[in-house]
Amino acid sequence: MVESPPCPLCGETGTERYAEIRQGLYHRCRGCDLVWLDPSHRPDAVAERAFYATHENNPVDPGYRSFLDRLATPLARILAPGSVGLDYGCGPAPALAAMLRERGFTVDLYDPFFFPDNAKLRQRYDFVACSETAEHFHAPGREFARLDTLLRPGGWLGLMTALRPPREQFAGWHYVRDPTHVCFYSENTLHWLAQYLGWSCSRVGRDVTLFGKPHLTPAARPVMGNGA
């Protein structure tokens, strides 16, 4: 029997085996409700990058643009003209950044595989767009802490990730068929995250959430889970 490790988002040790299917063993946190793939079953960095390179995310494809517009439009509505942002985890074809630039915003790019410019991680932004990226986080606690530091007070995080279905539907869910998807969030997880970081949280679509960072910095918090 494999013992469930601490949660890589909140650090909670009260975790449980959630499912064991073809992709491997999954755990669930009883605290923040995150579900994650056991680290021993994740692809290595070479395999992960190779899989991303097979994605056909054409920035001019109307269907793909319509998909991304589910995040681009509500995010653009709340941003001040001329806002400067970061497309975090933009992948090899940063279509979302192009769509936001078309709306008059300045958008930098960061991706650990395709745009690994760490200088972008030392700046602060009016907004961060994170589309179809959070499910790839190996250490979500560290990643969301980083996203918080990237945002200026009063800034916005636009997050797009499919929310986990009921447990009985998990094994057949299309999201778990992608070997690079290793973290799965519920609405409870997103509300936990917002409460922990002191962000506002607004669901604006089936898979889209806007988080607002307050203008005043909250009191110091313990460090979230570091992952494995």
Describe this structure in words.
The chain is an alpha/beta fold and 228 residues long. Helices cover 24% and strands 24% of the residues. The protein contains 5 helices and 10 strands, in the order βββααβαββαββαββ. It has helices at residues 45-52, 62-78, 95-102, 140-150, 187-197; strands spanning 15-21, 24-29, 35-37, 84-88, 106-110, 125-131, 151-160, 183-184, 200-203, 208-212. The strands form 2 sheets. A 6-stranded mixed sheet has the order 5-4-6-7-10-9, with helices on both faces. β1 and β2 (24-29) form a beta hairpin. α2 (62-78) crosses α3 (95-102). It is globular and about 50 Å long. The mean pLDDT is 93.
As a percent range, the share of strand residues is 15-25%
CATH superfamily (homologous) name: Vaccinia Virus protein VP39
How large, in whole angstroms, is the Cα Rg? 17 Å
- The overall strand count is 10
Separation, N- and C-terminal Cα atoms: 19 Å
Per CATH, the architecture is: 3-Layer(aba) Sandwich
Q: Note the total helix count.
A: 5
CATH domain fold name? Rossmann fold
| Average pLDDT for all residues | 93
Main sheet summary: 6 strands, mixed
Question: How would you describe the shape?
Answer: globular
**CATH class division:** Alpha Beta
Backbone structural class: alpha/beta
Tally of individual domains: 1
